[in-house]
Amino acid sequence: MPMSSSSFDSSGSSDVTPSPDSFNQTVIEEFRANGGRVGGPFEGGDLLLLTTVGVRSGREHTVPLGFVRAEGLLLVVASAAGAAEDPQWYRNLLARPVVRVELGEEAFDAIAVPAEGARRDRLFAAVVRAAPGYGDYQRHTERVLPVVVLEHTGADVPPREIAGLADRILEAHDWLRAQLRHLRAETEAHFADGGGARVPSLGLQIRQHCLAFCQGLTAHHSGEDRGVFPALARSHPQLRGVLERLAEEHRTLSGLKDGLAALVAGIGTAEPGAFRAELARMTAALEAHLAHEERELLPALAGIPFPPAPAPAPATAPSPAPEPSPEPSPTAAPHR
Ligand SMILES: [Fe+2]
Ligand SMILES: [Fe+2]
């Protein structure tokens, strides 16, 4: 049997019977217990674990998948063994592109970007050369099997030494700024000839990066609103006014983030000049918040350790808590 994503996923269309979920669970446990190695029919195969977040449930969903490396990229195929429908994990990553990858003994966050058009076809041909079974799956379905590029989230952010909570916040801001730069560069490539012909194959790629930025921003602000800001308000009462203004900016940015997603969703028909102006306005507002927060809070955060120190004695002012991580997020738990 070829190494195949569909052989393991829990889409219900697997060739593993009678219980794909329990089979997957066994493979996942073996993978984690043995540094990414599994035995049986998959001995020696290229296998990773992919964790997505359910579109409706909001729950994490892990599947073992075969992978292929081509053109320097890490690829998985949503083959579902050639079934008529896309597997659940693929539907999940279209809604929430920031995913968790376990590969060997390494674990990292990634942005899942399905390839499109000629790029998809070229990558799929490379996949079939490495694992011919995917060609069989493609012949069994009318779906064009999606080829998903798993992009390491830390790839375009310089590593930062984490000596304290301030560095942790800066690391998250570095990542958010990098995503905005990425988004601007991709939209410029989309309007490649200055406003005439577009590059349609970039549509989904831009959308995924935009959603990843929004997902990362939501997780980061949620960590600040629920953890860092309340703790700072207790330990530094003089900052309460500043913290209230920053929390208000979070609410404003939440609306702006939705506007950004809507703007990008319409890129296929947008007038380039208006699109660029609106994107510039939105990114300037987002970047202004990051700069404002750093100006106001970093001095107060200096010296606060991360990970947090052990609980203080009752008479001591509490230290800010770390950011919670409600879902896989590069801003909550970057891995390099
Ligand atoms: Fe913030
Ligand atoms: Fe922040």
UniProtKB/TrEMBL annotation:
Region feature (Disordered): 1-22, 302-336
Family, per entry: Belongs to the F420H(2)-dependent quinone reductase family.
Family matches, as Pfam families: F420H2_quin_red, Hemerythrin
Catalytic activity field: oxidized coenzyme F420-(gamma-L-Glu)(n) + a quinol + H(+) = reduced coenzyme F420-(gamma-L-Glu)(n) + a quinone
CDD domains assigned to the protein according to its UniProt record, in alphabetical order: Hr-like
Signal peptide region: none
Name the UniProt record assigns to this protein: Nitroreductase/quinone reductase family protein
Biased composition (Pro residues): 305-336
